[in-house]
Amino acid sequence: MLDDQMQSFLSGLIHDGFHTPAAALKQAAMERLAGLIPFDTALWASGHTQGLSVHNAYLHKLPAEMMENWEQYKHQDRLLAHIMANPGLTCDVYDFYSRHERPSLEIYKQHSAHYGIESAISTAIPNPDSGLMEVMSLYRKPGQPEFSPRQRALKQFVFPLMIDVWHQNQIAHLKSLSGGEPSLAAAICDRQGLLRHADAEFLALLLAEWPGWKAPMLPKPLVSWLSAPGQPDYKGKRLALSADLLEDLILLQGQPSGAASLLTPREEQVARHYASGMTYLELAGELGVSPSTVRRHLESIYKKLGVSNKIGLAQALDAM
């Protein structure tokens, strides 16, 4: 059962997700987290697993120059290497450095000590489907107690929730600016076609259209489409997309197109089973419905797809 402190944090986080402006959401969430796990400074970075590139970094009580300095030492960072290799696991800096060794290292002298970082716990959550990652590190100054095992566990629990709230806040914000449809699959990218956020439904649309696609760069046809301002909506074989340029980012919204958009999930299931050679009775047994229900589904399917027999049905499904 959640204690009162955790319940207060979670209800506050959800409130912030709905009511806090996108530009202020990370700060609001981190201030709430400081009430749950005390820390002096912190980093919450959003980026891409490829090259460990960062496109959005919130630095809590740290100077902006810290990220530029970190770029020089990130490949020496044992803590970072371990959390990237163990997604979702919260680790302590002293799991990988001895207290005797660490002060002699360049990464400590030129980076950690320079910014007053003595204790640190970090978590990385990469998304293999989108190539995106989120990293959060909480820091304490010299003379402060180290983070406890319970505090590590708390951070490990709440960080995925904070990420979900952040992503939904960003997409909802851009949809509100564009007047977009809340129910459509959505993603955010930059002007070069590099993904920033993408919901699971949007990734599924891209993979249906381009089965061999690999994130985080959008498929080449979409990059070309985005590079030509004023173009109409993108119409693919299996998807339709719109794009709105907002605040130097692009909001992409999509839905299935063609036959795929005409059938309900149950109708598509019936259609594919029937086209593969199953009989009414076999389909009824497979789905746990009566043969007359299967017949009604097929009548609706034939009408929606404009076909009159199983061969036409199979051809229409192949085109989906």
Structure notes:
By secondary structure, the protein is α+β, with helices and mostly antiparallel strands. 44% of the residues lie in helices and 20% in strands. The protein has a five-stranded antiparallel beta sheet, with helices on both faces.
Jot down its keywords:
12 helices, Profilin-like, 44% helix, 3 domains, 10 strands, alpha+beta, elongated, Arc Repressor Mutant, subunit A, 5-stranded antiparallel β-sheet, Beta-Lactamase, 320 residues
In short:
By secondary structure, the chain is of the alpha+beta class. Helices cover about 45% and strands about 20% of the residues.
Q: Which regions contain 5 or more consecutive residues with pLDDT less than 50?
A: none
**How large, in whole angstroms, is the Cα Rg?**
25 Å
The share of residues in extended strands comes to 15-25%
**CATH class group of the largest domain:** Alpha Beta
Q: Please give the order of strands in the largest beta sheet.
A: 2-1-5-4-3
Order of helices and strands: HHEEHHEHEEHEEHHEEEHHHH
User: Could you tell me the mean pLDDT?
Assistant: 88
The CATH architecture of the largest domain is 2-Layer Sandwich
